Amino acid sequence: MHYVYIVACADGSLYTGYTTDIQRRVKEHNRELPGGAAYTAGRAPVTLLYSETCASRSLAQKREHQIKSLSRERKLALIHESGAN
Q1: What is the CATH number of the domain that holds 61?
Q2: Are 50 and 14 in contact (CB under 8 A)?
Q3: What is the largest CA-CA distance in the chain?
Q4: 49: domain range?
Q5: 69 has pLDDT over 80
Q6: pLDDT at residue 84 tops 80
Q7: Which of 11, 17, 44, 63 is deepest in the core (most CB within 10 A)?
Q8: How far apart are CA 5 and CA 17, in angstroms?
Q9: What percent of the chain has pLDDT over 70?
Q10: DSSP 31
Q11: Is the CB of residue 64 less than 8 Å from the CB of residue 17?
């Protein structure tokens, strides 16, 4: 399974990414495991706010790009609409 997700960083910013294992990826972003994105390295801890499944890596990466292009307000609306927060 492939996932697109949004996390909230400690500084209030939002980060969008793609993964095949959300729990592992959040741990990486929080420096509990090696890895993570350079963007979140200095902004931990992060909190998972949103995720959606995609049938393939290609679709997940396309959806990640779509979400990254949204404004912060639209990302927050997406999170709210999903019932995640």
Answers
A1: 3.40.1440.10
A2: no
A3: 32
A4: 2-82
A5: yes
A6: no
A7: 17
A8: 5
A9: 98
A10: T
A11: yes
